[in-house]
Amino acid sequence: MRIVVTGSDGFIARNLRVRLRELGHQDVTGITRAAAPAELSEALRAADFVFHLAGVNRPSQDAEFVQGNVDFTARLCAELATSRRSAPIVYASSTQATIDCAYGRSKLAAEEVLLRHGRDTGAPVHVFRLTNVFGKWCRPHYNSVVATFCHQIARGLPITVNDATKALRLIYVDDVVEAFVGLFDGGPSGYLEAGPVHEATLGELAGMLKEFADSESLMVPRVGAGFRRALYATYVSYLPFERFAYQVPSYGDARGIFVEMLKTPDCGQFSYFTAKPGITRGEHYHHTKVEQFLIVQGTARFRFRHMVSDEMRELTVRGEEGRIVFSIPGWAHDVTNVGTDDLVIMLWGSEVFDRARPDTVRSKVSL
Q1: Is this structure's pTM higher than 0.70?
Q2: Which of 27, 108, 129, 303 has a CB 3.0–4.6 Å from the CB of 365, allowing a cystine?
């Protein structure tokens, strides 16, 4: 399939082109404003599919809206009509097409040109009225508040929130791209939606991004689903290289080291520890806390004693086995390095350690 992407150096196009490459599409021609007329003509006349993402949104004078949005779209349609190939077109329009302003009128006019081309030629035309698209590779200090806030906060720079109650409707670029490429399999012509559309106030947006910035203190906020997942990924994509890594505390003694990796608001915490050959660690029990151990390196012997019945249990696990070992509430437990190499163990605890209420009671396993 021969694919043409106009506005190929833009934010959405960069994400789209990466996705096209992932899907195995090799014949992709990008058209930028610098493209010569002959280059555009040649690309469009051979196109099997067109993503029309080019547009003007911040010109020095209003006349450029017509030139960049309406006239260019008319030229694109004329070239496609000449080819007689009826290539499907995906158009990145804007919700401002419903607003009576110079930019909105130009986007509406471009939509009408495309829809008329579809009626005249039978080419499928898919129009997406997008709003506040955010994600990686978006230019800060241009027309995206998310990009600007991410860029500033990731560098410890101030942001300006003029109206914290201002409502925003936002859509993640990956969702836009998936809606676009989904049309390779066909789909209805006319107006389509990419989603989900997320709603937040300007104050809420700023607050979430500042929370993400503070997560380098070990506590990682909820970032696993929905809007927060997309926003967190976007924020991290703006980190400068010198912040690609950060230090966490490490506590060491003659037995080995203990390092906390991250903590979560309601899903416990992750850490790891080491033990020299012959060293025993643990020797305590919990009432409520649950732990899971994964041997990364070495050989570990786990021992358990029931705190009421004194029942004893024991098992040995090697790093290459990929087995998880529980600590069970009400059972004292310890772990001994019974190998010849340093023992390295990953540890998840079901709750964040609270020094005021540690739920960790010292107790030998052997009587």
Answers
A1: yes
A2: 303
